Here is the input.
Amino acid sequence: MLDQILAPGHPGYYGPYGGTFVPEVLHATLEELKAAFEQARRDPDFWEEYTRELRTYSCRPTPLTPLDNLSRAKGGVRLFLKREDLNQTGAHKINNVMGQGLLVRRMGKKRVIAETGAGQHGVATATMAARLGLECTIYMGSVDVERQRPNVFWMEQLGARVVPVTEGSATLKDAINECLRDWAYTMDHTHYVLGTACGPHPFPQLVAYFQQIIGVESREQMLALTGRLPDRIYACVGGGSNATGMFLGFLDDPQVELVGVEAGGRGLEGGHHAARLAGDGSVGVAQGYKTFFLQDEEGQMRETHSVAAGLDYIGVSPILAHLRDLGRVRFAAATDEEVIAALRQLMRTEGIIGALESTHAVAGALREVGQMRPDQQVLINLSGRGDKDIFTIATALQDRNWVQFLKDKVAKS
Ligand SMILES: *Cc1c(COP(=O)(O)O)cnc(C)c1O
Here is the structure.
C-alpha cells in the first residue's frame, strides 16, 4: 500500500481524491516540479543530503519518549511519544520545507513563496530560505498578521518579505489566492512551498514523501525500544502532513491501528469545529484539489473553529480521505476542552508542553486507552511544542494575571 501512495509516476489520484484543478498556466510548472521530484528521488544522494541536513540542523532522529507516569495513571497501557516538538522551529514542518528547499536548489530556482495562516509554516519557510540562500516572500491575511505578530517579526528578522493580504476576509484562503497569483507570474524562477499534504498533485505526494521520515524512524525506534510494533497510533490532523508522515511508516503493518484526530472545536453539533473526516465534511473541489471540505449545500466554504490555529482548515489531505475509505485509518475529533485538559495532564505528569495542535492526538488517545490492556502499546505523535501557544493556553486555563502580564509586556516591547 505504501508503494502505491509514494509510487513514482503516480497519477495524482488517491481513490477519487486529489487531482490537479489549477488554471492552465500552472500546468507546465507542476509538470516541471513532478519531473524534478521523480529525478531527485531516484538519486540516493538526494535522500542522503536530506537526512544529513535534518540530522545536523534539526535534531533528527527525534527521540521516542516512554510516558511511564501517564501510563500508570491510565491503567497500565504503555504510552510513547514521538518528539517532533524537538525539531528546529519546534514542529515537524521543517521536514517538509527543508525537503522542498533542497529540491528547489537542485532545480536552480532562486526564490520561494508561501502562504501562512497562524504563521508557523511561514517561519519554517523563512528559516529554510535563510539557510539555503533563497529569496523568500510570505503571503499572510492582514487579519492574521495582526493576530500573529511574533511570527511576523521572526519571518522578517529571518530575511523574508511578509505581504499582508487585504482582499476578502483577509485570512488564509485569501493569502492562498494571492500566493497562486504570484506563482503564475514568477514560476520560471520561483517555487511555491506548500505547507501540508494538500493542494494539487504532486504536492500531497511530495509532502508525504518528506514527512514519512517521522513514521520510518518511529517504526525502527519502537522495535529497538520494545521489540515490537505499537498496537495503535494517534496523530492530529490539520492538512494532514504529520499524520500522513507518521502513518506511512506503518501502512503495511495491518495489525497497527491508525487513528487521525481532528479539531472538534466546541463540539461537532454546533458547527464550530474543523472535523472534515470525523465530522460533516463533504466531497468537493477547491484550492486545486478534490477532497472532503467543510462547505454548505452550495459549496461555499464554512467558517472553521479550533483552539489550535494549525488545525483550523477547511480541507484535508486526499491521501487521508482515501485511507479512510479503505478503512485503514480511523478518524476521531477532540474538543477544545478535552485538549486543554490533556495539555495540563501531559505537563503535570511528564513535564512536556505540547502544541495545542499536537495535544489533539494526546486527548484522542487519553479518551480511549482506558479500554486497552496493560500489555498493549500506544504511540502518539507530538507534532510540535506549545511555547507559541502561551497566550491561548493562559487564557484557556483562565490564568488572568498571566494573560494581563504578557499583554503588557508585548505592548511595551
Ligand atoms: C501546522 C501544524 C499542524 C497541522 O498540520 P498537518 O499538516 O496536519 O500536520 C499540526 N501540529 C503542529 C505543531 C503544527 O505546527
